[in-house]
Amino acid sequence: MAVFTASLAAMALAGRSPWSVITPPVIFSLSRNNVYSRFIRPVATLATSLNTVDAGTFNLDDGHQERQEYTRLLPCSPQNSSPRIEHLIVSEDGTAVDYISKALNIPPLFVADLIHFGAVHYALVSPKPPTTATSEQVRLFKEVTAASVLKKRASIKGKTIREAQKTFRITQVDESVEAGMYLRVHVHPKRFPRCYEIDWKSRVLSVDELYVVLDKPAGISVGGTTDNIEESCVTFTSRALGLTVPLKTTHQIDNCTDGCVVLAKTKDFCSTFHKLIREKKVKKMYLALTAAPVPTGILSHYMRPVNFAPKIVSKDCISGWHLCELEVLSCKEIPWPDAEVEEKYHIEDCGWDGSKKVAYECEIDLLTGKTHQIRAQLAAIGAPIIGDSMYMPAVIAERENPCLNPFGQGKKTEFSNEDDRTKAVGNWLSKYGKEPHVAIGLQASLISWFDRVYYARTPWWKQ
């Protein structure tokens, strides 16, 4: 048996390989004063299925050897803990709950909660370790993927190695695992505590026999994340409407963005809506609150083709980069939100060095739909969105030293070699900040297709 630990940031830097190993194991911390108890939602089905599971005891990560009884179904604090991901290669047959509990020395009930959150994934065969893996990890990988071992496993008969290495989410607490399988356990899933503060019925704009239109609150994922499908708009809206079949995601907007999203009741409508989006028959309008004025007209950039944020854009056409276009229909001065409003809606102070007396409300027609497109494009022209702690720091840095941005107006005309370019890109990425915790000045204000038009409520900066 082997246990490997990695941070989320390290995974991105290492090409998001699940084998990245840079931090020592961390024992999950649980306080007796954990305020999560007031947020517990009905979990009768889960409780029934676990009525024979021993809660056991739990080590505290406070430098002491004290042990305490673990008694809650949902142990995680509403505050996000430091990232912790464990990578296991199963050494004996059994259930996922029992194996993970023993391997990581955490209570079976806690493992069951992680499974309920969607925080446990498996593959029939372990993914190939990266070049950063230790010799022991490489040895173990070769041992469990040796042809003499694989041919004895009936579960992978007829599958290629690539097919067997595909990961899936474990969804049942009694799901079985077998020797040689790979498990990825997100011990500290990303949390969305705002789910429990929202009156979800009041956020529903329309209920149709095929779909629901939601005015999504900021600070919550639309359809869930890799490690948390429980605390999402889909889950809580389905529950608020009393639906027996959960709603389905048809499109995404950023966690920190609020406004109109369409959730499907059926797989067929989900497919239909995806087709409408591909055919550009769905219109999406946004309101953006920026720290500097934005010129009206069409704004075009090319986005670097990587799957993780922050997104880098360039005015120059670069081979392989994705075209991003939006049209700014209007831009008007409005008062900068006062401190009371910013505090109420958890708007982060990103250190903007300009005047905080006047802000600019822009109406935007999104012509292409790339992740972080509006945020990245507005930042690229020096007009970051208020509260955007990821993109605003880079704008501030570029104002102080225009040469920092290898794709900006003050960039070098060319690089002497690829190493210099790579170094410049890495240095530029280091100027960005972290993803906002809750809201920014961006709202998906309208969504329409055919004769159906839906408007979001008044944005937070006007309330």
From TrEMBL:
- SUPFAM superfamilies cross-referenced by the UniProt entry: Pseudouridine synthase
What residue stretches are annotated with the Pseudouridine synthase RsuA/RluA-like domain?
211-380
Signal peptide from the UniProt entry: none
Q: Which GO terms describe its biological process?
A: enzyme-directed rRNA pseudouridine synthesis
What GO MF annotations does this protein's record show? pseudouridine synthase activity; RNA binding
Source taxon at top rank = Eukaryota
Looking up Pfam families in the UniProt record yields: PseudoU_synth_2 (PF00849)
Q: Which InterPro entries match?
A: PsdUridine_synth_cat_dom_sf (IPR020103), PsdUridine_synth_RsuA/RluA (IPR006145), RluA_PseudoU_synthase (IPR050188)
User: What is the name of the protein in this document?
Assistant: RNA pseudouridine synthase 6, chloroplastic
**What are the top taxonomic ranks of the organism?**
Eukaryota, Viridiplantae, Streptophyta, Embryophyta, Tracheophyta
